[in-house]
Each structure stands twice: as structure tokens, then as C-alpha cells.
Amino acid sequence: MKEENGEFYGHLARRILFVAAATGVYGAVLAVWRSPLMAAYVAVKLPAVFVGATLIVSLFCWMVALAMGAGLRYREVLEAVFFAMSVAGAILLAAAPVVLFFVFSAAPDSGTRETMRLAHATMMLAHIVVMGSAGTVGVALLYRSLKRRVPADCRLVLMMCIWLAAFAAVGCQLGWIMRPLVGSPNISVEFLRSDALDSNFLESLFTQIIPHLINGGVVK
Description:
The chain is an all-alpha fold and 220 residues long. It is 75% helix and 0% strand. It has helices spanning 2-31, 36-67, 74-106, 113-147, 156-177, 201-214. The longest helix is centred in the middle third of the chain and has 35 residues, at 113-147. It is elongated and about 60 Å long.
């Protein structure tokens, strides 16, 4: 039993370290357009978001699995969700060079306040899509793995949809609290903002980012 536990925790630790390293690299790419200091900050903060969200969501996922009749122990759920995050981390690591090229292509060196805000909003939305897509692929592969392990009467599709929604909600909100991640061109570089707990991600997405893109950078 002790050997089994030691093997499990060793394997889990390696997964966590890989997720932290991969998202750290992507975090640096995320903010390097703003400044090297901002890149260093986000290289620390993005792994905290991914690992923190996974640890928080894992307990909820286990309770959902129990309700759906999956018959999974908590340690199995913990291993499963970090498997999904490892896949997402690998995708982000592979995408980092392409994203880096996009970042420096989309980020103007100078311009009006509206131009800089539009570039910032565009990059932020693009990163949300990339990270969301990576997470979705991870969950899809996890679904294929769990399909062979859970009872036939388990509502696996519904369970995975709930897991994915939980990951998205917690991850986006943690990212909002840990902002800046992309780095605003009109705000000084800082590790955390003083208003970190004000508002929430969805409010910002639908009242600032998307309307700003629709208006073409023109503030109305």
C-alpha cells in the first residue's frame, strides 16, 4: 500500500510540475510584449491559475462523479483532472512559438489609446480561445480514457460537460483575480492589481472586451 501511494503521489507530482512548467513558458509568451518584467510575473501567475483551478475543481468533480455513478475514488479523479491539464499544458507548450509570433505581430509599438486598447483586447480574446481550446482537448481525451473505466449506466457526457464548465468558471475567475496576465498598455506593470477582487471575468468579457472589439477600438 505504501509503495502504491508513493508511486501515485510521485506520478501526480510529475504531472503537476509539467503543468506548471508548460504554463509558465506560455505565461511568459502571454505577457512578453508588454515588458520582460511582466513576462516574469505571468510566468509565475499562470501556473498558479492552472494548478490552483485544477486542485479546487477536483473536489467538485469527485462529487459530481459520485452523483453520476462513475464509481471513481477521489485520487482517481485527481489523477484524471491533472491528466487533462497535462494534455492542455503540452498543447500550450507546442503553441507557444506560434503565439509568440502572433503577439509581436498584433502588438503595436505605439499608437493612440484606442489603438493600443484594441490590440490588447484582441490578444486577450485570442489567448482565451487558445487556452480554452487546449483545455477542451484535454477534457476530450480524458473522456475517451474514462469511458473505458466507468460503468455503462454512468452519464459520462453530462459529467464531463459539468467538469468542463467548472474548469472554465474557476479558471477564468482565478485568472481575473490574478490579473494582469496579458498586460494592459495603458496601466503600469504590476504583479497584482489593487482592485483584484472587484468585478468578475464574465462582466469584463461582455461589458469591455467583446464590445470593444465590436466597436473597433472606439470607446462609446
